[in-house]
Automatic annotation (TrEMBL):
This is MmgE/PrpD family protein. Residues 282-444 form the MmgE/PrpD C-terminal domain. Belongs to the PrpD family. Residues 23-261 form the MmgE/PrpD N-terminal domain.
Amino acid sequence: MEQTLSSRHSSSTDDPASAVTRTLARYLVNAQPTDLPAEVRAHTISSFVNWLGCAVGSTHHPAVEIALAALNPFSGAPQATLLGRETRTDVLTAALLNGISSHVFDFDDTHLKTVIHPAGPVASAIMALAEYQHIDGEAFIHALTLGIETECRIGNAVFPDHYDIGWHITGTAGVFGAAAAVGKLLGLDEQQMVNALGLAASQPVGLREMFGTMTKSFHPGRAAQNGLTAALLASKGYTSSPQSIEAKRGWANVVSTRQRYHEITGELGERHESLLNTFKPFACGIVIHPVIDGCIQLRNQYSLSGGDIDAVQLRVHPLVLELTGKRTPQTGLDGKFSVYHSAAVALLQGRAGEHQYSDEAVRDAQTVQLRQRVTAEIEPSLAPDAAQITLLLKNGQRLEKTVEHAIGSVAKPMERADLAAKFTDLVTPILGESQAAALLQAGWDILSCSDMSDIARLTQPKA
C-alpha cells in the first residue's frame, strides 16, 4: 500500500530530539505538489501576490537605492531581475535586494504566532533562482509553501524566548525557509538538505535593536541571500552537522532559552502553518493594527477632525509599547514603530498606508500636535490583535471602541479584493495602470506559468 506523506514521517511523540534536522529534511525532500491541499496552495498564492506588490512598490525606497549603489559595482552577471526596475544582477545580489525591497515598507505578510514575515526571505531567494533556472509556477508555489512552513515551524519552536532576547526572528528563522525552498527547487537529496539546513543554522541574522532603521529590511534580504547560499553549497557536497538545529550547541539551544522541537516535526504534512499567514492593511508594525483599525472606525463613524479631539487614550497588548513605543519619531521608518504617530494619522487621515509613514508625514505639524495628545497603557489581558481606544472630545463627549480582532488578522482576514486593491495602490506608481493589472493577473494565475521569468519581466518598467 502506498504511504501518505504524513505517514512517512514520525509524529512529535515518536521523534527524538536528536533527529529534528533530519526529520525535517526528509519531509522536505519527499514532499510533492500533489500533497498540498487546495486551501494551502491558494493561500500561498495570496502570499506571493502580497510579496510581489510590496517588493515592486518599494523598489525606489532610499534603502534599496543605497544598497544597489553600494553593491552594484561588485555584482556578477545579469542573471535575475531587481523587481520594479530595468536592472538585472546576479542571483545572490537579486535575492538580497528584492528581500530588502519586499520588507522596507513594513507592509508584508505576518505569521502572527511568531511575528515572522514569511514570504520575504523565501520568495526573494527562490524568485531569483527560478528566473535563472526557468522554474514553472507550480514548482515555485510548492517550494514557497515548504519554505514558509519550515521557517514558521522553527520559529514556533523558540518563540517568544528567542524574540524576547532581541533576535529579529524574520531573519533568524527566515534563512531556514529560504534554504529549504531553494533546496527543493535544486532537487537536493536528504543528506544535502540536512547540510543546507545546517549551513542556514550557521547564518542567523537580525537584531530587534535595528527596528525603525534601514537595517531592519536588510534582515530578510540577507536571510534570502544566506539561505540561497546554503542550498547552493549543499548541492555541491558542502557538509554540516547532522543535528544543526537540535544539538547541545546547535541553533535552537544557542539562540533561545526554550525549545519545543515537536513544533518543527509534529504533524508534518498535516498541520499547515502557512494558513496562519496574514496580510497587512496598514504599512507599519503589526501590533499597532488594532489601534489603527479602531481609530479609523471612530473617525468615520463620528465624522471627526483633528480639531475635535482633546485626548486619545489607548489600552494595548504589552508588545505594543515594547515594539512601537517611539514617542517622537523623526523619520518615516521611525513612524512605523510609533503607536502614537499611527493613532494620530489614523484619526486625521483615515488611512495608514505608506504615504502616512513618509518623513514628511511624521513631521507634519497637525500630526505632531495630535500625537502629543495620545497616551498608551498596557493591558495584559488583551490579545495581540486587540486594543481599546478612548477619545475625549473638546465638547466633553467620550467615545470608546474595543477592537477584538483587527482587520488583517486570522479572524478578520483581508479578502482577495482587498489584496488586489493594495497591490494596485503599491505597483501602479511604478509600472503604470495597465502593466500593474497584467502583473496582478499573472500573480493570481501563477500555477499556469511555465517560466517564472515571464512574471519577472512583467515587473520591469517599460521605457
